[in-house]
User: Fold ATP-dependent Clp protease proteolytic subunit from Caulobacter zeae.
Amino acid sequence: MSRLPLRIHASARPGALPVPARRDVQAFTTPSVLDRWSEDAAGVRALAQGDNVITMFETIGEDWWTGGGVTAKGVAAKLRAIGDRPVEVQINSPGGDMFEGIAIYNVLREHSQEITVKVMGMAASAASIIAMAGDRVEIGAASFIMIHNCWVLAMGNRHDMAETAEFLAPFDAAMAEVYAARTGQKVADIVKWMDAETFMSGSQAIERKFADALLSADKLTTDEKAKASDRQINELRAMELQLVSAGLTRTQARERINKIKGTPGAAHDEPPTPGAGDTDWHGDLAALIASFQA
Assistant:
């Protein structure tokens, strides 16, 4: 007697998330998450890709340092090119602009066919919201999903801070609802995990229903050249956020970094030969950050 193949039926995709009218406010990934992504996930890729695959191996939102980044506009264009077919979304991203991640989530959830999300490496912050658009989510055993509250850089007096907190509260609540709808977990538990900036391993993500199944290890590989490039560029992003946290504007932070390191295009160059005139830019930037924090 033959058996019908087992099919996992995806739950209904959660509703759309609100996108802020004020796009002058950006929500970022924290520097600590960028560091962890560099150490644990940089360079992880899929062995095979089809013509219905959308890859998200960069930060979410436009990336000034590379000229790339994953944007809602770019994802919408790729979906139009794929057409009315099932889509596979491969994610290895530390996150980025949470509000751009919300927009991408909304674009994906409108697709008419099944979406399979594969987390290879990490889906952190804004990237974790994007992952929730999948009808089916697969994750590597050594991969992570990380959730947290919107994280922004704000300046001003106590009234400005209160206004910022009030502005962010609905987005944190909406994200908690999406995580809860996808997982079946209590909203109160989701809120606690977001407050604690929680990393979930592959098995834990499945246990908590953030993912449905483990990715086979033989479907993943580490691109060493991409790993080196990811790490180098990620250091620039982390340094930029640290300088902004110390009081500079993003433009000032980038100008300072470029004076020490070089132009953004230099991030793509091969590492210089030791002793060939390369300065200790890591040490110089660390000293610069320390002086501003003091």
User: Anything to note?
Assistant: The longest strand covers residues 115-124. Residues 1-10, 264-279 have pLDDT under 50 and may be disordered. Strands lie at 44-46, 53-56, 87-93, 115-124, 136-140, 144-147, 198-201, 213-215, 220-222. The two ends are 75 Å apart (CA to CA).
